């Protein structure tokens, strides 16, 4: 198992320093050494299939490269994350995405495919209803948990108890299985600049996400 430190939280409006990453710390996230099945040929097919941005470079991991560390400035992304709607650059209409990853010290690869589907569905509902997406409202609707047997992967469950009626927010059907997704990853890097979110995999802050004074206030004041 690889271990990585928990990074200090970044906040919206603050830069995220992804250079000279010091990975020695007592706060560690255990990351399984799943080898990638990607080759340059399969990577090209993925780039073409998802029409991935030409403003980024894409690289299949070498035989000795494992999650999530690649070369400086790279981030490890799963193929199934793109199936779930992730795209780079992150859509400028949704600064919420950068705020989410920086506030909770997470890298996009830590969200399992169905968690990304929940995130993107939330953004879609907000966009269609003319609502500005916010981290606090997302926390009102969802609870963060860890994927079974891992302390680095995040899943979301809809909060369906103790909440006012949210009949207008219907959770879509997600694939019951994304078999083999942990071995389908490659590295991505912007050609110009750096990613605005953490590249290292921090420890998912379940307590911070799930129970805070502002969340308790929202649970009481939330409209129907």
Task: Describe the protein in words.
With 224 residues, this protein is of the alpha+beta class. It has one domain (2-221). It contains seven helices and seven strands. It has helices at residues 40-49, 79-83, 95-103, 113-128, 135-141, 206-210, 213-221; strands spanning 2-5, 28-31, 56-59, 75-78, 142-146, 154-158, 185-190. The protein has a three-stranded antiparallel β-sheet. Strands 1-2 form a two-stranded antiparallel sheet. The longest helix has 16 residues, at 113-128. The protein is globular, with a radius of gyration of 17 Å. Mean pLDDT is 80; it is low at 1-15, 19-26 and 162-167.
Low-confidence stretches: 1-15, 19-26, 162-167
Shape: globular
Order of helices and strands: EEHEEHHHHEEEHH
Helix fraction, binned, reads: 25-40%
Tally of distinct domains: 1
Q: What percentage of the residues does DSSP assign to strands (E)?
A: 5-15%
* Backbone CA Rg: 17 Å
How many helices does DSSP assign?
A: 7
Task: Strand order, main sheet: write it out.
Answer: 3-7-4
Helix-strand makeup class: alpha+beta
The tally of strands reads 7
Distance N to C terminus: 45 Å
How many strands, what sense, and barrel or not for the largest sheet?
3 strands, antiparallel
> Please, what is the average pLDDT?
80
InterPro entries: Transposase_28
Biased composition (Basic residues): 1-10
Domain Transposase (putative) gypsy type: 78-145
Region (Disordered): 1-28
């Amino acid at each position: 198992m690889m271990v990585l430190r928990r990074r200090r939280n970044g906040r919206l409006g603050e830069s995220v320093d992804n250079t000279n990453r010091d990975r020695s710390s007592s706060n560690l996230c255990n990351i399984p050494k799943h080898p990638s099945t990607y080759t340059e040929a399969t990577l090209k097919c993925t780039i073409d299939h998802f029409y991935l941005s030409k403003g980024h470079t894409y690289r299949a991991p070498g035989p000795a490269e494992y999650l999530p560390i690649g070369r400086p400035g790279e981030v490890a992304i799963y193929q199934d994350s793109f199936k779930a709607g992730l795209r780079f650059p992150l859509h400028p209409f949704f600064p919420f995405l950068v705020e989410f990853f920086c506030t909770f010290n997470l890298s996009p690869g830590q969200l399992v495919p169905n968690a990304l589907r929940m995130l993107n569905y939330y953004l879609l509902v907000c966009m269609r209803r003319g609502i500005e997406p916010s981290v606090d409202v997302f926390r009102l609707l969802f609870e963060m948990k860890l994927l079974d047997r891992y302390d680095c992967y995040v899943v979301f469950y809809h909060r369906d108890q103790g909440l006012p009626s949210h009949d207008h927010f219907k959770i879509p059907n997600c694939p019951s299985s994304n078999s083999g997704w942990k071995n389908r990853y490659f590295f991505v890097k912007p050609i110009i600049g750096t990613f605005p979110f953490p590249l290292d995999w921090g420890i998912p802050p379940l307590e911070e996400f799930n129970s805070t004074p502002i969340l308790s206030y929202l649970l009481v004041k939330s409209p129907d």
